């Protein structure tokens, strides 16, 4: 056997070994399909277009990762299937093996790392506030004695609840089922503000019938690194995903994907969010890591 043939054989042997070693990779190799979990309305990360197809920044990142997995497993084709998830069940769908990658807007937290694995963050955001355009509120203290809504079971809800209790602000905190419902509560004056990751607030704002009647205010109350989610029981899968994320960043393909979704017009209204990459993400991508502080 020539040296070249030997190297190829060793490489293929390593790939096959990794595929058998990890339960998720083994299932993907055997079935020839991968299931991506997505959100319905987390603009611009993961949402449905006019034809009800999942699109977005996170979906594009997952598409790149999916192709890298196909190549690593030496598959001639890899069918992509989709599973719609919500803020309530996105982690559970990965835990229960109903999805292989979650491509939504899920933050990497210590609590969630007990259940699932995360790759290198593709975005860093934090909790801010959506209010009506004529509101004088500029920070959390401005909601003292008023009503503030957040989405059920999110880090933002936990953060404002904790701060409200610690600072004795007497804020009436309400829970919405999703971001759209929360925005509607502001518009209908059922609440004075909506606390959520600022980029999601801007995404919701871009879809409202009268976006000029709402605004996003305040400094970051929390910092939330958003990442692709996968099984904690398949370290070989995580290694593949991490490797592809590092390649996307070093080749600057990730920067181009970012620009497509954050600085240029996007569906459904062909409005640009005009959100340049913040310094937190720029700095993290200089030395890409999945180690995050929270």
From TrEMBL:
Keywords: Signal, Transport
Signal peptide location: 1-21
UniProt key word Iron: no
Record has Transmembrane as a keyword: no
Top-level lineage group: Bacteria
A Pfam family per the record: SBP_bac_3
Domain Solute-binding protein family 3/N-terminal: 33-265
GO CC annotation terms, alphabetical: extracellular region; outer membrane-bounded periplasmic space
Gene3D superfamilies xrefs: Periplasmic binding protein-like II
Biological process, per Gene Ontology: amino acid transport
Family statement drawn from the similarity comment of this UniProt entry: Belongs to the bacterial solute-binding protein 3 family.
Descriptive protein name: Amino acid ABC transporter substrate-binding protein
Lineage: Bacteria, Pseudomonadati, Pseudomonadota, Betaproteobacteria, Burkholderiales
């Amino acid at each position: 056997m020539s040296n070249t043939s030997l190297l190829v054989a060793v490489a293929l042997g390593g790939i096959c070994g990794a595929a058998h070693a990890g339960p998720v990779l083994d299932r993907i190799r055997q079935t020839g399909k991968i299931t991506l979990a997505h959100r319905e309305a987390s603009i611009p990360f993961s949402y449905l277009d006019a034809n009800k197809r999942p699109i977005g920044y996170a979906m594009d990142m997952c598409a790149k990762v999916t192709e890298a997995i196909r190549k690593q497993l030496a598959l001639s084709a890899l069918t992509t299937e989709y599973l719609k998830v919500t803020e309530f069940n996105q982690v559970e769908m990965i835990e229960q093996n109903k999805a292989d990658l979650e491509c939504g807007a899920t933050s990497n937290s210590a609590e969630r790392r007990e259940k699932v694995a995360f790759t290198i963050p593709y975005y860093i955001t934090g909790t801010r506030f959506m209010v009506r355009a004529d509101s004088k509120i500029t920070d959390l203290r401005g909601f003292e004695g008023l009503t503030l809504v957040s989405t059920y079971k999110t880090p933002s809800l936990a953060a404002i609840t904790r701060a409200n209790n610690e600072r004795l602000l007497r804020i009436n905190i309400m829970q919405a089922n999703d971001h759209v419902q929360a925005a509607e509560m502001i518009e209908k004056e059922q609440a004075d503000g909506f606390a959520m990751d600022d980029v999601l607030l801007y995404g919701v704002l871009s879809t409202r019938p009268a976006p000029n009647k709402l605004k996003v205010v305040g400094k970051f109350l929390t910092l939330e690194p958003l990442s692709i989610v996968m099984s904690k029981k398949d370290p070989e899968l995580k290694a593949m995903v991490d490797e592809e994320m590092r390649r996307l960043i070093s080749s600057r393909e990730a920067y181009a994907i970012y620009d497509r979704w954050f600085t240029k017009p996007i569906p459904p209204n062909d409005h640009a969010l005009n959100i340049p990459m913040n310094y937190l993400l720029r700095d993290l991508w200089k030395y890409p890591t999945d180690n995050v502080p929270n």
